[in-house]
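TA notes, week 10

Several of you asked for a full example with nothing omitted. So below is the full record: structure tokens for the whole chain, then the designed sequence directly under it. When grading your own attempts, check the secondary structure regions first.
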């Protein structure tokens, strides 16, 4: 199925022959996307092909699937994973106890909230230095002088009446 042509197997620019149309040669990095597209374009050919259980990019005729499974290069990766799992390699890593501890925190949200005034936060408005009996807010704008803030919202605000 694949045209190796002495290229590095991991080279994303190497060309691979499409299993649906032998005239299609696709870069390896685009091959999975091409398979999806060609599967839809060639439904009759798709019915005759089987997908390798070790690599979904390997599409072979159904009659040749068992032979492909015996010779598939990606079979070794799966077998190695199975060996690692059965030996407890991954279980040991998952059961390792972390020695990380959170740094001490100086924040006390309860104290901070009682120190602040009871007025609500409004974006672009500041009420610092205003006593709690005053309802007037001063407008604070951090925009550069050549940019102005919009005077109204593009939508209606329910609490603004």
């Amino acid at each position: 199925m694949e045209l190796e042509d002495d290229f590095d197997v991991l080279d994303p620019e190497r060309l691979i022959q499409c299993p649906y149309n032998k005239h299609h040669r696709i870069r390896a990095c685009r091959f999975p996307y091409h398979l999806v597209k060609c599967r839809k374009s060639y439904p009759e050919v798709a019915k005759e092909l089987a997908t390798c259980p070790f690599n979904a990019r390997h599409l072979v005729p159904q009659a040749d699937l068992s032979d492909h499974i015996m010779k598939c290069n990606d079979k070794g990766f799966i077998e190695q994973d199975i060996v690692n799992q059965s030996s407890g390699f991954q279980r040991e890593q998952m059961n390792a106890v972390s020695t990380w501890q959170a740094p001490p925190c100086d924040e006390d949200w309860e104290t901070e909230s009682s120190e602040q005034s009871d007025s609500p936060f409004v974006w672009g408005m500041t009420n610092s230095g205003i006593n709690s009996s005053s309802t007037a807010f001063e407008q604070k704008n951090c925009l550069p002088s050549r940019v102005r803030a919009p005077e109204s919202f593009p939508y209606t605000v329910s609490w603004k009446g």
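The CA atoms of residues 54 and 125 lie 60 Å apart. Use that as a sanity check on your answer.
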